[in-house]
Amino acid sequence: MKKLIALLVISLLSLRAVFPGEGMWLPLLLEQLNESEMKTMGMRISAEDIYSINKSSLKDAILQFGGGCTAEIISNEGLILTNHHCGYGQIQRHSSLEHDYLTTGFWAMSRSEELPNPGLSVTLLIRMEDVTRRALEGVHDNMAGSEREARILENIKKIESDAVANTHYKAKVKPFYYGNEYYLFVTEVFTDVRLVGAPPSSIGKFGGDTDNWMWPRHTGDFSLFRIYADKDNKPADYSPDNVPYRPKNHLPISLKGAEKGDFTFVFGYPGTTQEYLPSFAIEMITGETNPVAIRLRSKRLDIFDRYMGESDLVRIQYSAKHAGVANFWKKMMGENRGIKRLDAIAKKQESETGFIRWASENPERNAKYGRIIPEFEKLYAELSGLKLDETYLIEGGLGVEAIRFAYSFKGLVELARDNASPGDIEKAVSQLKLSAAGFFKNYHRPVDESVFSALMQDWFSHQEAVRMPQGLVRASIPYGTNYARWAEAVFSKTIFANEERTMALLDGFKPKNAKLIENDPMFILAKDIYQHYLKNIQPGVARLTAGRDSLQRIYMLGLMEYQPQRRFYPDANSTLRIAYGKVDGFYPRDAVYYRHYTTLEGILEKEGLGMEDYVVAPKLKELHAKKDYGRYAAPDGTMRTAFAASNHTTGGNSGSPVLNADGQLIGINFDRNWEGTMSDLMYDPDQCRNISADIRYVLFIVDKFAGAGHLVQEMTLVD
Ligand code: ARG
Ligand code: GLU
């Protein structure tokens, strides 16, 4: 009896261990590694329905959107869905004072009103293939690192060119498990992608930075685009003759919603995770670099806040910059907190001790793996110092806008010095004029001057002078510790914090004027900071990172041998992955439970707080007052706005479809909860949740709020 109970407990424990959602899996290996578990968790479709190269599958509806987001095809006329924050740049570029689409929203009421977006592309995966054997051909264990790398690079080039010979496809081979495996991705890239619809920011960005990385959430974070192709349905650059793309597949949409415990999966392009780092790396990130970056960003944000509160113009000029700085700032704080709460460093140390013991059990193993952990320790001791230098330089020195801007004139100085042709110089000058106009449109010198003073003060008081850019140190000497006076001196003299001076320099620029740039105090500082980075930081970081990667490659193999029961997934690397989990709430703190969904009621609740991030459009309030939700209401009559689930996601998963057990679209992923942001380093099933807009809220906004029901008409709604 006792034995039986013990067995039961063990099997329950192991069930718990595999159950809730860690991992970003390769579509190609789903059938082999995940299908049976997915079915146990409730999935009713097959791995072949998700990824197949023999028949049309869900993967034919998944896109990488621009460089860093995911989108999905939701009609047979090329309509695609992504996040509002992913389409933000495009929406902003089409906006002007007369048509402020960010504020009012944008809806194309006919195809002719859909707006082209030069520079934007979406990428469809045609197929993927394990090419490890070919990539590692001719590689052997006693090769030097650089020789090994060169050999692999050569192999990869050949695989890529073979894969797309005589097609319009593109090919890319990427390493997995730190170079233990290689996969080939053949893709089709579409470049005529037009804006179809976006809600006003009061919906698409509801909650703003206040709610960013947080649950409970009420953001209608979506926008709609359409792919256009040529008459043969092939990718083509924008042309008025292009027609809506006819996809192999598009996602059906379910209005049945997501209830607690329901199986869901996320299909998209996660960017970067680092799940297999040693404890030393976690110590470096959470103990050294994150705290410095957080502190320096806090100082910058405080200054932004102060000036933004004083002037509407500055508020508009700095709102996107503020959001950009704040996004990762908040993420790093959540990550540090999560790692601590998980006791992740101690957990890693414990497993490393076990690994060393296991390796020492037999001489062959010991030869292969025994040195890995001590070598990691040595390597990170050196890397930590350099990473800290890098963090100060990037978050400190390069946090000053004028320093980065001044450095963009370096190319012009070089052209002048190298006696470039007048044509080349003119081209460079006109490009700089364009970027200068963009820069000064959103530049407020007093903000930047305060930032300079605050960041230099922080940098100089925390780092030894010998570790800092020497020109910078010398330039500071006349001002002692009066950083405000130093800032004042630099900013009043420089060309690059002043639009008139910059334009005067560029208007009728002559090669001999290059002296004006070279003698500019901001340019001199910028050059010194960048040179310090290129000479004293970057080479060491590159060398140590290469060393780290080759240690990681062997460590990865060792871990797989050491823990044969554990299922390993490769770290995210911007390739197509599947995460699966369950709709679920969580306990952020003792006794506090967060339900798995939010409703429109919460939007009005938040409005009551009277904050700028919680403004509600009158039309939305009207619809709420009349409970005019149509077929998009939940069975209990509420309007569900968002839901949380235990899918393992990261940056790049923004815009990813969240699908139900039948492979139907029920939501669009846009964020994670703050308590779970350490999942890039270590996942915790109790705390890690992805946040999705409920598809019923999305369609309600399109149909009832915007009156763009014709778009819902072209989608495939199932029940
Ligand atoms: N945290 C999300 C992501 O990493 C959303 C960022 C955009 N939203 C915002 N309020 N800044 O991309
Ligand atoms: N907002 C993120 C993105 O843009 C997704 C959130 C996350 O990091 O999980 O990809």
Provide a descriptive summary of the structure in words:
There is one protein chain. The protein is built from 28 helices and 22 strands. A hairpin with a 3-residue loop joins strand 1 and strand 2. Helix 11 runs antiparallel to helix 19, helix 15 runs antiparallel to helix 19 and helix 18 packs antiparallel against helix 22. The radius of gyration is 27 Å and the shape is globular. The two termini are 48 Å apart. It binds arginine and glutamic acid.
Secondary-structure blueprint:
Layout (H helix, E strand, L loop, with lengths): L1 H17 L11 H4 L1 H6 L6 H4 L11 E4 L3 E5 L5 E4 L1 H10 L7 H4 L1 E2 L7 E2 L5 E9 L1 H4 L9 H20 L5 E7 L4 E10 L1 E7 L2 H4 L3 H4 L11 E7 L13 E2 L8 E2 L8 E6 L10 H32 L1 H31 L1 H17 L2 H7 L2 H25 L4 H7 L2 H8 L4 H20 L3 H18 L7 H7 L6 H11 L5 H8 L7 H5 L2 H42 L14 E6 L3 E4 L2 E3 L2 E3 H8 L10 H8 L14 E6 L11 E3 L5 E8 L17 E5 H11 L3 H5 L3 E2 L1
Parallel strand pairs: 12-22
Antiparallel strand pairs: 1-2, 1-6, 2-3, 3-10, 4-9, 5-9, 6-8, 7-8, 9-10, 10-11, 13-14, 13-19, 15-16, 17-18, 18-21, 19-20, 20-21
Helix pairs in contact: 11-12, 11-13, 11-15, 11-19, 13-14, 15-19, 15-24, 16-24, 17-18, 18-22, 19-21, 20-24
Arginine (ARG) binds next to helix 10 and helix 12.
Short description:
By secondary structure, this protein is α+β, with helices and mostly antiparallel strands. The protein binds arginine and glutamic acid. Arginine binds next to helix 10 and helix 12.
